[in-house]
Amino acid sequence: MNNIILGIESSCDDTSAAIIRDEYLLSSVIASQEVHRKYGGVIPELASRAHQLNIVPVVDQALKQAGVTMNDVDAIAFTRGPGLLGSLLVGVSFAKGLSLSTGKPLVEVNHLQGHILSCFLKEAGKERQYPHFPFLTLLVSGGHTQIVIVKDYLDFEIIGQTIDDAVGEAFDKCSKMMGLGYPGGPIVDKLAKEGDENKFKFTLPNVGGFDYSFSGIKTSLLYFLRDNLKEDENFIDNNKADICASFQKALIDILMKKLLMAVKQTGITQISIGGGVSANSGLRNRIVNEGIKRHWTTFVPEFKFTTDNAAMIAITGFYKFRKGETCSIDVAPISRASQMK
C-alpha cells in the first residue's frame, strides 16, 4: 500500500497536523491555545485567529519531522466537522489551498469517527493490541457522549447518545461551580484522586434505552453546593477532593450503566473508549477493571491520542482514501454532528 496521508485538525482550540504511512504514525504536531484559560472556556473568535497563526508552521513541522515533502503525500485529510465553525473554516480552507497548489486529493473526515479509529494507530517499535470487528466504543468528550457499534473501519452505528449535555461539559461545569479553573476535566480528576468517592451522593438520571443525560446531575451539584454553602461558607474549600471524587464517580456510574446494558444486549465484549474524557483516570480504571471482571477485551488509548489530534484524522483519512472516498474542492465545514454523514 504505502499511502502517505497528511492529516489536519482544527475543530476547536488545538491546531494539529500529522503524517502517517499506512497505519503508522510518522509525526504529530499540536499547537495548543492557552489564551482561553482566563476566560473559563473556548472563545470561538480567538480560537479561529490562533488557528490562522498556527496552521502553516504546524503543517511545516509535521512534514519535516516525518522526513517527507508534499510531493510524497498521497492525500490531504482534514476535519470537516463537527466543531466550531470558525475554527473548522481555517483548517478546511488551508486544506483546499494546499490541494489546489499541489494537486493532492482531499479527504473529509468526521471528527468523531477520528476519535473512534485512533485505536488503530501504530507506532514503530511499540506493540499493542487492536480491536477486531465488531467492537463497542464509548465516545466521551466535551461536546459528545455516544455508544457506537463499530462494524468496520467506516461502518458505524450509534446506539446511544446524550439527549442534552455531554459528560465533558459536566466535568467543566463542576470545576466552574467550585471555582477550580479551566479546563475542568483534568482539575476534577486530579483532586478526585485525593478524595473519598463515597462521601457525597448525587441524583442520577433515569433515561430510557442507551441514551444519556447530564443536565440533571449538573443541577443536582448546583443545589448541593448552594445548600451546603448556606450552612458553611467554607464548605467547598474544606471538601474539594471529596466533592470532586463523588461527582466524578457519579458521572462514571452513569456512563458505565449504559455501556453494561449495551454489552449485554449486543453480546459484543471488545470495548474501546475515545475522546477527551477518555483521559480521565477514574474512567480508564473502571473500564479496565470491568473488563477483567467481565472478561472483556478493553482498548484504552494513549493519553496523547485522547485529546483532539491530527493523527486520528490522518488514519481515518487513510481508510477512506483506500476505498477511493475523496471529496470535491467545494466541500464546506459542518458544525453539528447531526449534519455529518
Quick summary:
This protein has 341 residues and is α/β, with parallel strands linked by helices.
Any overview of this molecule?
It is a single chain. By secondary structure, this protein is an alpha/beta fold. The protein has two domains: 4-126 and 305-339, ATPase, nucleotide binding domain (Nucleotidyltransferase, domain 5, 2-Layer Sandwich); 135-303, ATPase, nucleotide binding domain (Nucleotidyltransferase, domain 5, 2-Layer Sandwich). The protein is 42% helix and 18% strand. Helix 4 runs parallel beside helix 6 and helix 5 (184-192) packs across helix 7. The longest helix is centred in the C-terminal third of the chain and has 32 residues, at 235-266. The mean pLDDT is 93.
Comma- or semicolon-separated keywords:
globular, 5-stranded mixed sheet, 341 residues, Nucleotidyltransferase, domain 5, alpha/beta, 18% strand, single chain
Layout of helices and strands:
Blueprint: E1 4-9, E2 15-21, E3 24-31, H1 44-66, E4 75-81, H2 85-102, E5 106-110, H3 111-117, E6 135-140, E7 145-152, E8 155-161, H4 167-177, H5 184-192, H6 215-231, H7 235-266, E9 270-274, H8 281-294, E10 297-299, H9 310-322
Query: What's the shape?
Result: globular
Q: What name is given to the CATH topology of the largest domain?
A: Nucleotidyltransferase, domain 5
Q: List the secondary-structure elements in sequence, H or E.
A: EEEHEHEHEEEHHHHEHEH
Query: Please, what is the CATH homologous superfamily of the largest domain?
Result: ATPase, nucleotide binding domain
Number of helices: 9
The side-by-side strand order for the widest beta sheet comes to 3-2-1-4-5
